Fold these 4 entries.
Entry 1:
Amino acid sequence: MPLLSSLFDAPSRWTALDPVAARAKDVADRLLPGGSVRALLHGRPAGHPAHPALAQLPIGTSVSALLLDAVATVTPGGAALEAPARGLAAVSVAAVAPTALAGWADYVDLHPDQQRTAIVHAAGNALAAALWTASLFSRRHGRLLRTAGTSVAGAAGALGGHLAYRWAAGPNHAEHLVHLAGDGKEFSDLGPLDDLPEGRPALRRIGDAPLCVLRRGGQVLALTDTCTHLGAALHEGEVKGTGAATTITCPWHGSEFRFADGDVLDGPATAPQPTVETKVADGRVLARVVGPPL
Ligand code: FES
């Protein structure tokens, strides 16, 4: 395995972090507000995770300060760049709190191996923030402290990227289902209507794509089955509501999706569930995955 990947994979196995990880989850559950504030921290109103978007600001300002410091080092009269570099460091410090809060909200629902990596990622960023803060108060070592902070933040940020891409914390876990289910032009036969249990979600498939299918009398509702948040099976969840307002709540972390359009109404998911069009013909259920709601 590539050395860098091995290095970044290591924290996921550090079980000694588990007490800290559990404590961080407990504190988040108690302190972070729920409802619309929690939804905002996850990024649900934007349909995009908030944490990686917010992280752009401290990354951008700290790297900009680093470049100013580099120019100041090799330019006569570079001392004039100290004030703007210090201002950028101050913006980095100010951006840490909202970025960390959004990350903390996402952290709560991660799997234990992901949480261990997230703890190391957060510790690195906390150290970076401390170094940036110290740089604001140091007349002699400001540049050194900013450089150290940005270096640590770079490593912590790379670990965060590894957590997202290698360990799948944050991406949409259902996007591939659209492709597994074919081109969505043709309806597929899901079997006799009478084989579906009344009022209880059931698992059916189009090709390799699992579907969560709900029969209500002669009507059939369906969504793709793999939760966009972290991949739980939605057909094991709870059905609420009636008609166009019928929803399914994910059994793992409570994301609630509307059958009609796949929209996320509650929970940590930010991506809507790819939708499925159904019809009943000659007593058989036909379905096609329409795609991600746009
Ligand atoms: S897997 Fe987390 S809400 Fe569905």
Entry 2:
Amino acid sequence: MLVYNSQTHRKEELVPIEEGKIRMYVCGPTVYDQIHIGNARTFLSFDVIRRYLMYKGYQVTFAQNLTDVDDKIINRANDQGRTAADVAEEFSAAFIEQMHRFGIMDPDIRPRATREIEAMQEMISLLIQKGFAYPVPSGDVYFSVRSDHNYGILSGRDLDQLRAGERVEVNDEKRDPFDFALWKAAKPGEPSWPSPWGEGRPGWHTECCAMIHRYLGTPIDIHGGGADLIFPH
Ligand SMILES: [Zn+2]
């Protein structure tokens, strides 16, 4: 069986890390609204792949997260005068119902970001220790894209090329404009958790890495999601 490898940019023979087994993770939704048909297409595609692997006799372990804390959820909650947790709960249930309507199998493991804060903090601490991330005075922690010379390898996009065209968030605390938040300091009224870097919440990019590590063990065989997630996710 040939699968497209995003790292080498070509189709390659699928060779499981552990014989007869496939560990598979598919990025889940940020639960701030109903999903649209394009989202459903992604999840349906990976459901077909999962089922085919099972049909071929592989023992497939499939994990998918729910991003239940994020700017989009907080903004929606503020607009509607509700709590972020309430919005997340409503659209988590809606997502699961929609998946069932499409006949998509439930994941074996469905972690939720807000219940994985400790695992994410551990990962951030490790990245700081190894010099891949740095805390700043405001209480944010950033991933340093320059510290990882493989950064951008999946998308095949070079940081210096990107710089010319892309609009990036201006922030004096970042060492590089493309550095992204692993941990975000809490603003008033936002959901937050205590951390070694102060009250705050995890950045979106921390989530999948921490959950994969915790629930599937790294490395895994297949990481799926929308093509728009390849960079910079
Ligand atoms: Zn993800």
Entry 3:
Amino acid sequence: MKVLITGASGQLGQALQDSAPGSCELLALDSRTLDISQADAVRPAVSRFAPSLIINAAAYTKVDQAETEPGRAHAVNAEGAANLARAAQGSGARLIHISTDFVFDGNKSTPYQPADQTNPLGVYGASKCEGEQQVQEITQSQALIIRTAWVYAAHGNNFVKTMLRLMAEREQLAVVSDQIGTPTSAHTLAQAIWRAASKPDLRGIYHWTDSGVASWYDFALAIQEEALALGLLDKAIPIRPIRTQDYPTPAKRPAYSVLDKTQSWADFDLAPLHWRVALRQVLQELKEQRDA
Ligand SMILES: NC(=O)c1ccc[n+]([C@@H]2O[C@H](COP(=O)([O-])OP(=O)(O)OC[C@H]3O[C@@H](n4cnc5c(N)ncnc54)[C@H](OP(=O)(O)O)[C@@H]3O)[C@@H](O)[C@H]2O)c1
């Protein structure tokens, strides 16, 4: 199977390449080799390679910066997604598009179902939400859209690596405890996407994250505990829970964004890892990188 991956140098783009089935012929393009916001670049790239599957892992992911760069966020997350959907439609390729828990407002207190009402709180979420809608419309709901959340990896910039740096530099930390979601390893997400790729009949919106639930505070505590156990950190520092209102950010974030995965567990035929187990694997990878 010929597979075109966009956003190849991102956390997910890299993880997709690392875990691709041997039977796939990959063309993995990063933002320099294919800017998905440029329709004139997307069309020829797709028709030249003629993939049977396109996985869109490219996105404008700077949630706070998006508040002052709405045009850029829209160009990549909405127009870029639409460009890929049109190219897929025109060439007969299947499209797997990745989206986010930030399409929801977080006012629920039970896991979000794929069909729940979207109501993004910020520019990033709104641009991703529009991307989903465009993909659905252009492909007449034939595309597979997978929403995920709180993604991290050994590769790239993310909460885990920021915490490890701050835990090594600082005497203490304060982390928000009133935003609840599910940390998700890019590696386990990539495995779920490849599993979904092997099931050609899947279409519509699905949710996938690692299993379990945490606040950013819980996540930070787990990072410290696991990193100490692996020898990635030398000493424990006090970590204090704070409220979102005590840590203002330019973009508002959903207070609760746990995604219901019942359908994907059944249809992908894949059991998820608990987020803490997946975290241990990524920290182990960081340790191996450090010791190499
Ligand atoms: N990270 C999270 O916590 C999270 C949570 C929920 C959902 N998601 C979704 O998961 C997917 C993968 O995210 P990720 O964590 O892998 O993000 P990431 O590490 O920021 O990777 C995104 C990649 O997209 C590339 N990109 C940006 N603009 C582009 C453009 N115009 N054309 C082509 N490529 C472009 C970036 O390249 P440059 O760096 O060169 O700009 C980057 O390599 C995205 O759809 C994201 O919305 C992520």
Entry 4:
Amino acid sequence: MKVVALHNLKGGVGKSSAAVNLAREANRDGLPVLLWDLDAQGASTWILGGENGMSRKVGKLLSGKSPLGEQVQHTPWERFDLLPADMRLRELDRILEDKAEGDKHLKRLIAPFSEEYALMILDCPPGLSTLAEQLIRAADRILVPTIPSPLSVQAFSRMLAHLELKKRQRERVLPFFNLVDRRRRLHCEWIDSPPEALGRTLENWIPYASDIERMSLENRPLADLAPRSRATHAYRRLWQELKTELGE
Ligand SMILES: Nc1ncnc2c1ncn2[C@@H]1O[C@H](COP(=O)(O)OP(=O)(O)OP(=O)(O)O)[C@@H](O)[C@H]1O
Ligand SMILES: [Mg+2]
């Protein structure tokens, strides 16, 4: 099973939108997919029509005392499952910090799912958390949705500095541009030639598209909501690029 995390220090940059649509594209491509909504806000849980958990049990599950698989919900799409957000996720950092395994606790929580799924997508909350620090151990790729702006680049550099990654780990962190508006000069320039501070970026990018905002009104991924939309095709290309990346 491959594990892909959507992460950014910044909020509101398109992590949840990408998590849902990349998961659905991979699922349309025939892969059994599990999306784990690790953000207590529950945006991807909401879009997929899942039920936010509120159970006391989740503390036990996150600390590894009982199997996390008990919380898995089906979505309306076959072989596309959801591990929904839960209010107890607010305590996730404390739980991850507590564990004796050091920075491998998240990886251990994920491991049992590899029997059933070919791909796991992690929708992460914004911020520099213990979760963020453990992602590099747990995920094959960390995708960083990035709005083309100098402040986004600065946030990205800060995130890298905080994580203190080794060279090979750094290579698995891949920004991609989101909310691209081709009427803006900077956006056009950066798509063609991304700033060096971002390092290697994915080639595909997601345009600004109002269809994306509609996902949380109609509770469906773009492929089902607006199959012909530019944004749907953009996420599809992004998935194809990611698939190649994961196959390497
Ligand atoms: N390419 C896009 N075009 C138009 N709207 C977008 C695009 N990407 C994201 N949005 C909208 O921007 C808002 C934030 O997106 P999203 O929830 O995916 O970001 P996030 O990084 O997960 O946010 P948070 O940090 O709060 O978890 C949402 O209303 C979403 O519909
Ligand atoms: Mg989100």
